[in-house]
Amino acid sequence: MKIRILSLTLIALILNSCGPSKTRVAKSELDILIAKQNAGKEIYENNCAKCHQLYDPKSYSLQDWQPILKRMQIEARLQDADMDKILTYLSKN
Q1: What is the pLDDT of residue 29?
Q2: 4-13 pLDDT, tens per residue?
Q3: What is the spatial distance between Cα 46 and Cα 78, in angstroms, rounded to a whole number?
Q4: Alpha-carbon separation of residue 69 from 15, 18, 88, 92 (angstroms)
Q5: Within a 10 A sphere around the Cβ of 57, how many other Cβ atoms?
Q6: 35-48, pLDDT tens digit by residue?
Q7: Other Cβ atoms closer than 10 A to 65
Q8: What pLDDT is attached to residue 30?
Q9: pLDDT mean across residues, the chain
Q10: Residues 79, 84, 90, 93: is their CA dihedral positive or negative?
């Protein structure tokens, strides 16, 4: 009986020790997403405001933003990576 209890305790400790590493990975992905959103907001505010007022991200749906951004990308001379960050920002706000 003591061996069974010790075995179960050992298994529980092993399983418990595996949990935090998964949480760290999830936090890393979340940190990357937040950094991308923040970069998108900065690019949006610094580039789009040069020519016109900034629109509230909630003013348009994601489907509405896509053609608007496509058209504005040419005028603002922004790279695809920058536009992806802006779209991430607009879609999360």
Answers
A1: 85
A2: 665 556 566 5
A3: 12
A4: 47, 43, 12, 15
A5: 17
A6: 999 999 999 999 99
A7: 18
A8: 86
A9: 82
A10: negative
**Burial class (CB within 10 angstroms; exposed 0-12, middle 13-18, buried 19+) of 52:** exposed
Take residue 81 and report the two structure tokens written for it.
């990576």
Name which of 53, 37, 40 is nearest 83 in CA terms.
40
Euclidean distance between CA atoms 2 and 87, whole angstroms: 59
- Side chain identity at 76, as an amino acid letter? A
> CB–CB of 90/35 below 8 Å?
no
What are the structure tokens assigned to 52, written together? 């016109």
Alpha carbon of residue 47 to chain centroid: 20
How many other CB atoms sit within 10 Å of the CB of residue 31?
10
- Residue type for position 49: A
Q: Nearest-CA neighbor of 48 among 36, 61, 57?
A: 57
